[in-house]
């Protein structure tokens, strides 16, 4: 039988060292010039078109453990967003964790995310390609930004386009990590 106390301690230490302990959407950081306006795409029908799983293909420091973002158009009658994080220890043991945030629409392709015990956050779809394969996600306060894709690999041209859109919207894309 494994020693779960030590395993949890090691996992917490690994997450802390990796910069992931703050979790997705940590409020104490910013990656964009908030003096620039943040655009939102008018493409599509919000959660209905964006719904489903998205692989995190580009992220800023601190979100390296964030693996997937799933938009849920109808979770018990409410829109929601699920965040899946993954962390692996040097031993090869890996842990997966999910958080669900309720999503209140603020307008087309914009939501306020709420989770008990956490400060509310906004999530904006800054850009999405015509076929809803790749998206640039941001927030007015610049505390996070992601490039999401429906597939875990490929689409280099769309990933570049998403990064360019984030840059145009004030993000310091020299700090973005692309998978």
Automatic annotation (TrEMBL):
<dbReference type="Pfam" id="PF08212">
    <property type="entry name" value="Lipocalin_2"/>
</dbReference>
<dbReference type="InterPro" id="IPR012674">
    <property type="entry name" value="Calycin"/>
</dbReference>
<keyword id="KW-0732">Signal</keyword>
<protein>
    <recommendedName>
        <fullName>Lipocalin/cytosolic fatty-acid binding domain-containing protein</fullName>
    </recommendedName>
</protein>
<dbReference type="InterPro" id="IPR000566">
    <property type="entry name" value="Lipocln_cytosolic_FA-bd_dom"/>
</dbReference>
<feature type="signal peptide">
    <location>
        <begin position="1"/>
        <end position="26"/>
    </location>
</feature>
<feature type="domain" description="Lipocalin/cytosolic fatty-acid binding">
    <location>
        <begin position="116"/>
        <end position="178"/>
    </location>
</feature>
């Amino acid at each position: 039988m494994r020693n779960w106390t030590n395993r949890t301690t090691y996992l917490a230490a690994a997450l802390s060292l990796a910069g992931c302990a703050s979790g997705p959407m940590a409020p104490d950081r910013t990656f964009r010039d908030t003096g620039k306006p943040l655009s939102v795409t008018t493409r599509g029908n919000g959660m209905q078109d964006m719904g489903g799983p998205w692989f995190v293909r580009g992220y800023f420091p601190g979100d390296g453990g964030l693996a997937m973002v799933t938009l849920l158009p109808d979770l018990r009658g409410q829109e929601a967003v699920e965040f899946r994080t993954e962390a692996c220890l040097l031993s090869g043991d890996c842990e997966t964790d999910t958080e669900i945030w309720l999503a209140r629409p603020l307008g087309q392709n914009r939501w306020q995310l709420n989770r008990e015990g956490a400060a509310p956050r906004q999530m904006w779809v800054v850009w999405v390609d015509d076929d809803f394969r790749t998206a640039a996600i941001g927030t007015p306060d610049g505390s996070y930004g992601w490039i999401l894709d429906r597939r875990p690999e490929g689409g280099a041209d769309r990933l570049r386009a998403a990064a360019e859109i984030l840059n145009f919207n004030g993000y310091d894309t020299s700090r973005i990590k692309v998978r």
